[in-house]
Design a protein that fits this description.
The chain is mainly α. About 65% of the residues lie in helices and about 5% in strands. The chain has helices at about 5-45, 80-105; strands at about 60-65, 75-80. Helix 1 (about 5-45) runs antiparallel to helix 2. The longest helix has about 40 residues, at about 5-45.
Length: about 110
């Protein structure tokens, strides 16, 4: 096999650097999703065995904000434990799926 020219070697190096940067970005995204997963699991764990799905929680609420609006009416608050648990379950499934997708991209 003939020896690579300086230009070819430089091109291979640039390609590798680009790939490593892409992998580093994927790893960073995975770490963000890991933090989100831990926060979701902690929230679910905090509800404990005495959890009553029929009650509204006075301590824990799920709040969705819309920062496009300037009025004071720019949020939706959910305090019902059953609804919050359902939403958290859906989020947890999706976060786990995204982590798995990122891990496949990282190792490919």
């Amino acid at each position: 096999k003939p020896k690579a020219t300086l230009a070819e070697t430089k091109k291979m190096l640039e390609d590798q650097i680009t790939m490593f940067r892409q992998k580093a970005k994927l790893i960073g995204n995975r770490e963000k999703f890991e933090v989100i997963r831990e926060e979701l699991l902690d929230y679910i764990k905090e509800q404990g065995s005495d959890f009553n799905s029929t009650l509204d929680s006075h301590n824990l609420k799920l709040v969705l904000l819309d920062n496009r609006k300037y009025s004071g009416d720019n949020k939706i608050q959910i305090a019902n434990n059953a609804v919050i648990n359902d939403i958290l379950g859906i989020l947890l499934v999706r976060v786990n799926q995204r982590i798995a997708e990122l891990e496949l991209e990282i190792i490919s």
